[in-house]
């Protein structure tokens, strides 16, 4: 991107690349953080370390906003500085000796953290895979869901729905199958619901909508894409009391220990913002902002569709997943769009070998940039039949 800008200093680059939010945080939420920050300058309002797990009010607020009727207790929720940070803490909890499975393509942090904690064995350039990881191919050909009857047992299964980058959302039936599979094999599912708020249909928003999930699944989530907190930093992880390791010991006890050892709690200012997010006024503001990004997604998807591309996602996640014809590499497609339209996308290959041949377009951008991008894409691909 920087090299392109140096080569073409006159070009106005539009980024539909990284999944970073672009719109300001709703005022009701920013104001709560401002007041909390100011409070820190007063004797009455000053606080230092809080509890590592986060304040009771925020955990209760999350239960009410996102887990009502799902049987989640506030003490099973751990507030954090973001879902990515929780993924590495979870990998630390599991340690180097476990085997893991991850969707391919998927958010790269699952595989990367597995490598970091030493769960993998070697890298195989021919398959572009790390040894010991089970890559669950999730492509249009299998409706973005793996054939579990052909999948080997692993200790952990990372599963993200709605998925980044494909935008695919697992159905209730698919998640029931996944939970049954984990139960049969004694596996733990790490379910990432960072984009659940973007869902337009009635597929499950949380893994705990599936009966029996409390015994097999951890759920991690985030305020990043919910409220524009990518820079503020706030997330949470749910560890149900019933979830046990194979030796019968409760996972929640060990996760609490890992958390308290590696973390001193999320910023008190961020937590004040989080509390405002789960208030009724905050939730209304959040849904409005999510609606804005969803409209961006619709415009992008419609553009690629009208140009004759095969597109996926875009309904339940702020990403459109586009397949390019022939056997073009995703890096070549990325280069072409950057060179000829000054638009940054993300090559599908960055999300795993299964992403080859695709690019991801992110809807996190100002509306005028989305409109401008669609015009440039129409000029670039309008004359071609794809
Ligand atoms: N999970 C998924 C699926 C993501 O796409 C992202 C960020 O793009 C994250 C987690 C990271 O969340 P956080 O900003 O809370 O670390």
From TrEMBL:
It comes from the Eukaryota. Residues 12-366 form the Aminotransferase class I/classII large domain. Gene3D superfamilies: Aspartate Aminotransferase, domain 1, Type I PLP-dependent aspartate aminotransferase-like (Major domain). One of its GO terms (biological process) is systemic acquired resistance, salicylic acid mediated signaling pathway. One of its GO terms (molecular function) is transaminase activity. Keywords: Aminotransferase, Pyridoxal phosphate, Transferase. InterPro entries: Aminotransferase_I/II_large, DapL/ALD1, PyrdxlP-dep_Trfase, PyrdxlP-dep_Trfase_major, PyrdxlP-dep_Trfase_small. Pfam families: Aminotran_1_2. Signal peptide: none annotated. Its cofactor is pyridoxal 5'-phosphate. The keyword Transferase applies. The keyword Transferase applies. Belongs to the class-I pyridoxal-phosphate-dependent aminotransferase family. LL-diaminopimelate aminotransferase subfamily. This is Aminotransferase class I/classII large domain-containing protein. It comes from Ceratodon purpureus. The lineage of its organism: Eukaryota, Viridiplantae, Streptophyta, Embryophyta, Bryophyta.
């Amino acid at each position: 991107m920087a090299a392109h800008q140096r080569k073409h200093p006159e070009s106005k680059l539009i980024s539909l690349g990284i999944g970073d939010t672009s719109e300001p945080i709703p005022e009701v939420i920013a104001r709560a953080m401002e007041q909390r920050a100011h409070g820190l300058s007063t004797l009455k309002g000053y606080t230092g370390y809080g509890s590592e797990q986060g304040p009771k009010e925020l955990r209760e607020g999350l239960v009410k906003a996102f887990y009502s009727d799902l049987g989640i207790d506030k003490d099973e929720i751990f507030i954090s500085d973001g879902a990515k940070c929780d993924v590495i803490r979870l990998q630390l909890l599991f340690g180097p000796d476990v085997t893991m499975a991850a969707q391919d393509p998927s958010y790269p942090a699952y595989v990367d953290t597995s490598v970091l904690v030493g769960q993998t064995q070697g890298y195989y350039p021919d398959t572009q895979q790390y040894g010991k990881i089970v890559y669950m191919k999730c492509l249009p050909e299998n409706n973005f869901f793996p054939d579990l009857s052909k999948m080997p047992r692993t200790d952990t299964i990372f599963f993200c729905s709605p998925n980044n980058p494909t935008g695919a959302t697992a159905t209730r039936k698919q998640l029931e199958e996944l939970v049954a599979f984990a139960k049969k094999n004694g596996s733990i599912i790490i379910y990432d619901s960072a984009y659940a708020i973007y869902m337009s249909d009635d597929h499950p928003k949380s893994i705990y909508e599936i009966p029996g999930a409390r015994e097999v699944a951890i759920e991690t989530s985030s305020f990043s894409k919910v409220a524009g907190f990518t820079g503020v930093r706030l997330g949470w992880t749910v560890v149900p009391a019933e979830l046990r390791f194979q030796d019968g010991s409760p996972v929640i006890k060990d996760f609490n220990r890992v958390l308290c050892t590696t973390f001193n709690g999320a910023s008190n200012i961020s937590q004040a913002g989080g509390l405002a997010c789960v208030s009724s006024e905050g939730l209304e503001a959040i849904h409005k902002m999510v609606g804005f990004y969803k409209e961006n997604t619709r415009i992008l998807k419609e553009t690629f569709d009208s140009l004759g591309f095969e597109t996926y996602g875009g309904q339940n996640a702020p990403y459109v997943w586009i397949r390019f014809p022939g056997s073009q590499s995703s890096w070549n497609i990325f280069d072409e769009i950057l060179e000829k339209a000054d638009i940054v996308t993300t090559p599908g290959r960055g999300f795993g070998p299964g992403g080859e041949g695709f690019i991801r377009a992110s809807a996190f951008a100002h509306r005028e940039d989305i409109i401008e991008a669609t015009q440039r894409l129409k000029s670039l691909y309008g004359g071609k039949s794809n």
